[in-house]
């Protein structure tokens, strides 16, 4: 399993107008659902006059993939799902796309809404700068003092990161391991007297 994935750098934007309704798309990378709430709240704060804030996001990959979409008051399946379909088509993950709509007084119909939200989301991601990142798994490893060095060396040899080491009352090491190396780490750490916690 690869630990690498593609997402976007910074914030990508797009504008789209259909029959006086204005659509403003914004996309950014996220690492968890808490980041979703923060980004949506930020868009709402900056675009206070919008009538709808529709969005979709995708986190993780494979069996751990999490996807969500909301129409946010638009007719069912006319906004959120089309945005999610655009995200899926790019293969990107750990990403959210929010499309804020300012209603222009003319109804667009089901097909018109689907096209408008899809187009805005697609343009937004086409304007994005892509970057490759790595999925990590966080672990806490409890060790005796003499074993600290062995755990740190094993972590670094597998391309992991030591986030923190607490020494009181007993050593507790917080590390990040690439997901593809997690099984190897768990097998090799058995040779060291430790207690591993997720």
Outline of the structure:
It contains five helices and eleven strands, in the order βββαββαβαββαββαβ. By secondary structure, it is α+β, with helices and mostly antiparallel strands. The radius of gyration is 22 Å and the shape is elongated.
Task: Tell me about this structure.
This protein is an alpha+beta fold. The chain has two domains: 130 residues, Ribosomal Protein S5, domain 2 (2-Layer Sandwich); 63 residues, Alpha-Beta Plaits (2-Layer Sandwich), CATH 3.30.70.240. It has five helices and eleven strands; from the N terminus they run βββαββαβαββαββαβ. The strands form three sheets. Strands 2-3-6-4-5 form a five-stranded antiparallel β-sheet, with helices on both faces. It has a four-stranded antiparallel β-sheet with strand order 9-10-8-11, with helices on one face. The chain has a two-stranded antiparallel sheet with strand order 1-7. β2 and β3 form a beta hairpin. α2 packs parallel to α3. It is elongated, with a radius of gyration of 22 Å. The mean pLDDT is 89.
* Overall domain count: 2
Biggest sheet, open or closed, and with what strands and sense?
5 strands, antiparallel
Output the structural class: alpha+beta
| Count of discrete alpha- or pi-helical segments spanning 4 or more residues | 5
CATH class of the largest domain: Alpha Beta
Helix-residue proportion: 25-40%
Give the H and E element order. EEEHEEHEHEEHEEHE
State the separation between the terminal residues, measured CA to CA: 20 Å
- Proportion in β-strands: 35-45%
What is the 3D form?
Answer: elongated
């Amino acid at each position: 399993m690869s630990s690498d994935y593609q997402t976007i750098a910074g914030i990508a934007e797009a504008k789209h107008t259909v029959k006086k309704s204005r659509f403003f798309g914004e996309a950014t990378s996220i690492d968890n659902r808490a980041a979703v709430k923060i980004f949506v709240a930020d868009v709402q704060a900056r675009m206070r006059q919008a009538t709808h804030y529709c969005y979709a996001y995708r986190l993780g990959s494979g069996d751990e993939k999490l996807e969500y979409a909301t129409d946010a008051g638009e007719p069912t399946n006319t906004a959120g799902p089309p945005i999610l379909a655009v995200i899926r088509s790019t293969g990107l993950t750990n990403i959210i796309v929010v499309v804020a709509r300012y209603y222009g007084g003319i109804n667009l119909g089901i097909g018109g809404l689907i096209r408008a939200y899809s187009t805005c989301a697609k343009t937004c991601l086409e304007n994005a700068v892509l970057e490759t990142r790595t999925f990590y798994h966080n672990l806490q490893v409890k060790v005796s003092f003499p074993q600290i060095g062995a755990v740190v060396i094993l972590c670094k040899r597998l391309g992991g990161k030591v986030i923190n080491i607490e020494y009181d009352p007993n050593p507790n090491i917080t590390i990040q391991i690439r997901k593809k190396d997690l099984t190897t780490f768990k097998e090799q750490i058995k040779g060291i007297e430790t207690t591993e916690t997720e």
